[in-house]
Structure formats: C-alpha cells, structure tokens
Design goal:
By secondary structure, this protein is mainly alpha-helical. It has one domain (20-64). It has helices spanning 22-35, 54-62; strands at 2-3, 41-42.
C-alpha cells in the first residue's frame, strides 16, 4: 500500500519540485503502481480541493 505524497525531506525522484499539483497527483499514483508494484493506494482528500473525477482521469490516462 502507498499513500499520497508523504512528507519527504526532498522532492520526489520523478518531479522537478517538492510541490505536487492536483493534476500531477495522478502521475504519482500511476508510478506507485507501475514502478513499485503497489496494489493499493490511499488518496488523501482531507482539507483540500479535490478532483472528484480523479479515478476516471487515472483510468483514461494510463489504462485506456
């Protein structure tokens, strides 16, 4: 299982900065499944603007 961008001491290996936008969170979840063989992903929706179509976007971007 993975969680959405845990607090790290540095930027993720796949990104150019420590800030991860809402649209880039979809890539982050995809990389967890594809690079790290994760089979469950915990999406953090608490206390922020949420893209309610995130599952649909994920499926269309990476599995269509």
């Amino acid at each position: 299982m993975a969680t959405q961008h845990p607090d790290n001491a540095c930027k993720p290996f796949w990104h150019h900065s420590a800030y991860i936008s809402t649209s880039e969170e979809i890539l982050e979840s995809y990389l967890c499944f594809s690079k790290f063989d994760i089979d469950e992903y915990n999406w953090d929706w608490e206390g922020k603007f949420v893209d309610e179509a995130v599952t649909d976007r994920f499926l269309h971007q990476y599995l269509a």
